[in-house]
């Protein structure tokens, strides 16, 4: 049976933003289930895989005001766009 755990990871600082996506990726490699979820920061939440650097530089941010696209760097720095 395929299992998925969906989680929210809140970011506490820009320093944490630089390490959390790769930390989650390392855990996901050996987890007995698929890890899914979003990293949440000032601008909203982004699917953690989008922040690992493997895809495009633009990320989809879901927040209280709606959905928008920003750069990975802007999101991780705490910016809205």
What does this structure look like?
With 81 residues, the protein is α+β, with helices and mostly antiparallel strands. Helix content is 27%, strand content 38%. It contains two helices and five strands. The chain has helices at 14-30, 72-76, and strands at residues 4-10, 34-41, 44-47, 58-63, 66-71. The strands form two sheets. Strands 1-2-3 form a three-stranded mixed beta sheet, covered by helices on one side. A two-stranded antiparallel sheet has the order 4-5. β4 and β5 form a beta hairpin. The protein is globular, with a radius of gyration of 12 Å. The termini are far apart.
Condensed summary:
The protein has 81 residues and is α+β, with helices and mostly antiparallel strands. It contains two helices and five strands; from the N terminus they run βαββββα. It has helices at residues 14-30, 72-76; strands spanning 4-10, 34-41, 44-47, 58-63, 66-71.
What key phrases describe this protein's structure?
alpha+beta; three-stranded mixed beta sheet; 2 helices
Query: In angstroms, what separates the terminal alpha carbons?
Result: 39 Å
String of helices and strands: EHEEEEH
Beta-strand percentage range = 35-45%
Rg (C-alpha, Å): 12 Å
- Work out the number of β strands: 5
Structural class: alpha+beta
Helix and strand layout, with pairings?
Layout: E1 4-10, H1 14-30, E2 34-41, E3 44-47, E4 58-63, E5 66-71, H2 72-76
Parallel strand pairs: 1-2
Antiparallel strand pairs: 2-3, 4-5
